[in-house]
Design brief:
Length: 122
């Protein structure tokens, strides 16, 4: 729950922003076969993180909700993996952006993990 005066950050919006940020980021990467293939995988997994969370929110059962959140967590973890593989060409600003995206993917994984723990307590 946000503290008084703080805006609650919608997780659907946050995952959407993550996917958009990834798309902007991949355009800054050096071209090459490995980066092209890894970037495609990253774009897919970053988008799937949010798409599955939206599906979780529309689920008809607790079991379906838990499964979709697990998939969201898995896709965030996969995004982190693909981000780690990408070649930045040694560009410090690109490396900083990658580190920021890895941090966001990690935070999303932790949020989804907390949602799963709370779901299992009920």
């Amino acid at each position: 729950m946000p503290r008084s005066g703080e805006k609650q950050y919608d997780l659907e919006d946050r995952t959407l922003q993550f996917a958009k940020d990834v798309r902007v980021f991949v355009k800054t990467l050096p071209r090459g076969i490995a980066n092209e293939e890894d970037a495609k995988q990253l774009v897919r997994s970053s988008g799937s993180t949010g798409a599955n969370y939206i599906e979780a929110n529309e689920s008809l059962s607790k079991k379906d909700f838990v499964m979709r959140v697990k998939i969201s967590r898995k896709e965030a973890k996969e995004s982190r993996y693909w981000l780690s593989l990408l070649d930045t060409g040694g560009d410090k600003s690109v490396e900083r952006k990658r580190a920021s995206l890895i941090q966001e993917a990690t935070e999303l994984m932790n949020i989804f993990g907390a949602i799963l723990r709370k779901s299992n307590e009920r």
